Amino acid sequence: MTVSSEAPLLFDQPPPNPAGGRTLIVDAAGSKAFVRPSEALLQAGPDDLVFVRPGTYEDKIFIADRPVTLIGAGRDAVQIFNRRGGPLYLQRVPSGRISGITFRYVGSDQHSAVNVFDSSCTISHCRAADGILSGVVLYGPECRVAFIDNEVRGNRESGIFVFGGACPRVADNLCVGNHHFGLAVRDPGTHPEFIRNTCRENYLSGMLLFCEAQALLLDNVCRDNHHWGVVMTPDCVTTPARGDLSKSNDLASNPRGPLQVTETPLSEIGR
Q1: What is the DSSP letter of 243?
Q2: Is 82 domain-assigned?
Q3: What is the pLDDT of residue 13?
Q4: What letter does residue 268 receive in the DSSP assignment?
Q5: Residue 5 dihedral angles phi and psi, to the nearest 5°
Q6: What is the pLDDT of residues 32-90, one digit of tens each?
Q7: What is the rounded distance in angstroms from the CA atom of residue 25 to the CA atom of residue 8?
């Protein structure tokens, strides 16, 4: 295994399969391997690992109601893109891991790069880019996904958007250069853990909470965004309490200040 400064993991060979099943190989060159990740996943059982060798793949991955282990050679080495919809859609995935892949949406309709509905797997060391909506959407009352150490950049709305009652763990991610917010939370019953994320150079604020959302906010860094570090509506609840957020998170170095509480957090984009 070699290590790149840009991607935390870069695999030359498939890692061991902890479940003990088969390892299915995806290779863009096609040398006695699957040529698309979706083809390998159709053949994979619940204990199998799908390993994606370096390359650029035009594909759409849809996984529902089963575990998944999908490992790429590294997010700088493997890119999966789609023109007609988000390249990754998970629905009620109960367990497993996805890592080491860049997901890009390159179409013109309203889609995100990564969609996760009511799932509880782990997504780590990936990249989500170029979504027309938010780059990553985590939603549904049974969504308990662990979204760890990913890079989310250059999406047309927010980087990571949590809504619809989801309660994921979102930690150690970099959300940079998104057109709205780095992290956004909406809806009653939605209660993510945001821990050690970095939100910088987003074109509104680092984080947004609105519409009765709740969130745990600890050790996050929101710097050099175009508005505030955190903006929220008065009906939202944070842990720690609102008055202590600047002590538990780095919200300095944003031009409008560390924190703003307002009834109209989206007024500057006409909503």
Answers
A1: G
A2: no
A3: 85
A4: G
A5: -70, -25
A6: 789 999 999 999 999 999 999 999 999 999 999 999 999 999 999 999 999 999 999 99
A7: 21
What is the number of other CB atoms lying within 10 angstroms of the CB of residue 221? 19
Sequence-distant contacts of 266-271: CB under 8 A, at least 24 apart: 266/210, 268/204, 268/227, 269/180, 269/204
How would you classify residue 212: left for phi > 0, otherwise alpha for psi between -120 and 50, otherwise beta? Answer: left
- Does a structural domain hold residue 181? yes
What is the extent of the structural domain holding 238? Answer: 133-269
Q: How many residues does the chain have?
A: 271
232-242 pLDDT, tens digit each: 999 999 999 99
Could you tell me which of 58, 100, 62, 55 has the C-alpha nearest to residue 82? 58
Q: Does a structural domain hold residue 88?
A: no
How far apart, in whole angstroms, are the C-alpha atoms of residue 240 and residue 136? 25
Model-wide pTM > 0.90: yes
Residue 154 located in a structural domain: yes
Range 160-185 average pLDDT: 98
Domains identified in the chain, total number: 1
